[in-house]
Amino acid sequence: MGALILSSFILGLAVASMTAPVGVSGAVFLLPVQISVLSVPSPAVTPTNLLFNVVSIPGALARYRRRGSLRSPLTRLLLLGTLPGVVAGALIRALLLPDATTFKLMAAALLLPLGLWLCMRTARPAGAHHPRPSSRFITSTALAVGVVGGIYGIGGGSLLSPVLAGRGIPLAEVAPAALTSTLLTSIVGAGTYIMLAAITGEVHVAPDWAIGISCGTGGLAGGYLGAHLQPVLPERALRFALGGSAAATALVYTIQAL
Question: In angstroms, rounded to a whole number, what is the distance separating the alpha carbons of residues 199 and 201?
Fold first, then answer.
């Protein structure tokens, strides 16, 4: 058990340090590892990932807060959509999508085109103009992402960040807003799963507390480090890294599911 906890801590540390600069908690990249290496069963892997977000994200936000307020207009627009969406997603995941194979294929179908789209947008000439999306677009996208985040246990940052970055919003603005949204959404989502487990008596719907907390503790340190490094990392490179990571994760999910 001790080796499992240590492995979970190291994985959380490594993933969060690489993803925090682009506004992603890293939960989406932990999913295949939790299923295949840490042997977290489905659908418990979803609330376990949400628990990881709850524990890990404050590290990155503590660093971002030193550079400015986290209560931006973008954050408020995201929360208007993601909070109700994650409750709906949790219900869908627990009641309709308990099978791990279906879960992986659906995740891959979302992440692959999104990652490729962001890479193609980033590859455009530096002078290309990307008009800022409207408030309605941001909130409606956040609602859809909240549902997806509740289903997959990813909080939504891994989807929101590529969409917002691809639509021209700077990552320096996207990252803290997406992480704040992911944190609050994950709190609501994890609470929903815990309530479902208590109401239905289905223990497999509850998170794996040991793995979620140990991964999250590693992510707490890794997120702070990643947020600290963000200002010195090239924006274009971060966008390519975000898109490439999403596409690579989709390919891993597809291979595991087939």
Answer: 6
